[in-house]
Design a protein that fits this description.
With about 190 residues, the protein is an alpha+beta fold. It contains five helices and nine strands, in the order βααβαββαββαβββ. It has one domain: Cyclic Phosphodiesterase, Chain: A (Alpha-Beta Complex), CATH 3.90.1140.10. Helix 1 packs antiparallel against helix 5 and helix 3 packs antiparallel against helix 4.
Amino acid sequence: MDYNKSFITYAVSFHFSQDVNEIIFNTMSSIAELTGNDFMIENKVPPHITIGAFHGTKDSEEHLMQIVEEFTKAQKSTIQSGAVSFTEVGNFNGKVLFLKPEKDAFLSETNKKLHEVVLPEFEAGENGYYVPEIWFPHTTLGTRLNQSQFGKAVELAGKISLPLEVKIKDIGVYQCSPFLELKRFPVC
């Protein structure tokens, strides 16, 4: 599949239990309020860890949903018994602030297995940043931050009690740019 402008980038993401969602979303909201940068809130981006990004066409969207639904069913017991441990606050170039989970066997294997079932039929999206060899799992707290906003956001993010243990509630599929939630598949 060659990249062209008719392709859509789709993201496949883990979502968390409600108690952890509240901690993360409240921090995202506080960052937006304090900095005036409300990109995450305005675009209704829920707390998540993207485990894969893929290019496809609108015509192939339903097929991607089927693959992700089958993947979720096949990995359900592994995902139910797995947990994510956020261990630190990190950043990309002082512009994106995130919670960084430990990249353990659970996260690495889930990412690898997802790519094994999706890549034969879809192209890796987002410049390949989510493929197993270079994937850097994270949960964004604030993005497109300028220097002043970044400093304020770091201070707020530092109030999250780490490590933060997370159970996965479901796997979601999203269309990127514009951001649109398409479907969620429960794992618990």
